[in-house]
Design goal:
The chain has 166 residues and is an alpha+beta fold. It has helices at 3-11, 66-82, 127-134, 159-162; strands at 16-21, 27-32, 35-37, 45-47, 107-113, 117-123. The model has no long low-confidence stretch (mean pLDDT 93). The chain binds zinc ion.
């Protein structure tokens, strides 16, 4: 992961740490940065993408607040859906980025900030099952992969995304 991103997650309190000791007393420290799930399985978790390597034209990372990063993530998740890479975190059905979806195909992006920190996509109808689905999912049991790269340099930004916090 890029250092700049790690530093930013750290400052936002979004890094998770764990210490474990084996039988010989050797201590291992582990850390997990926020993740993004593009499907329902343990192997559908990716390391959170970077606005810098995505070419995101919004405000620079050091100036971002969490809602700015969430806006970036929304563009990224839309790009994932557009590429056909996004599936529901509960039921696993592929998600479409079309605008006029039938009610039972509509979905939402969620940000979780618990033991597991990350973003995922879920059908509106699947939301009520998600807590059960995620029960017992521990960030340190997951081995997130490198996130796919989507070019967001052409993303249409809202005024809030352009404005910088002076
Ligand atoms: Zn679903």
């Amino acid at each position: 992961m890029e250092d700049e991103l790690r530093v930013w997650f750290e400052a936002q309190g979004l890094m998770r740490y764990a210490v474990s000791a084996d039988e010989r007393g050797d201590i291992t420290e582990m850390e997990r940065a926020p993740m993004v799930a593009l499907g329902p399985g343990d192997d559908d978790y990716y390391r959170a993408p970077s606005p810098v390597s995505s070419g995101y034209p919004g405000k620079p990372l050091p100036q971002m607040h969490l809602d700015d990063f969430n806006r970036f993530m929304f563009h990224w998740l839309e790009a994932a859906a557009h590429a056909g890479d996004a599936r529901c975190a509960n039921c696993g059905r592929q998600l479409s980025d079309e605008v006029d979806l039938p009610t039972n195909d509509r979905w939402d992006a969620l940000f979780l900030e618990k033991e597991l920190v990350g973003w995922m996509l879920v059908h509106f109808d699947c939301k009520r099952w998600l807590a059960k689905k995620l029960k017992g999912v521990e960030p340190f049991d997951l081995t997130p992969r490198e996130a796919p790269l989507y070019d967001l340099s052409g993303a249409a930004l809202t005024a809030a995304e352009r404005e910088t916090h002076a």
